[in-house]
Amino acid sequence: MTLLQAVLSFAVVAGLLTLVPGMDTALVLRSSISRSRPFAFATAIGISTGAMIWGVAAAVGVSALLAASEVAYRLLTIAGAAYMLWLGLSLLWKSLRHGKAAAPEGAAPAAGRNDLFKGWLTGTGTNLLNPKVGVFYIATIPQFIPAGESPLLVGVLLAGVHCVLTMAWFTLLIFGTGYASRWLKGARSIRIIDSITGTVLVGFGLRLALEPAH
Question: Which of these, 163, 178, 196, 206, could form a disulfide with 48 (CB 3.0-4.6 Å)?
Answer without folding.
Answer: 163
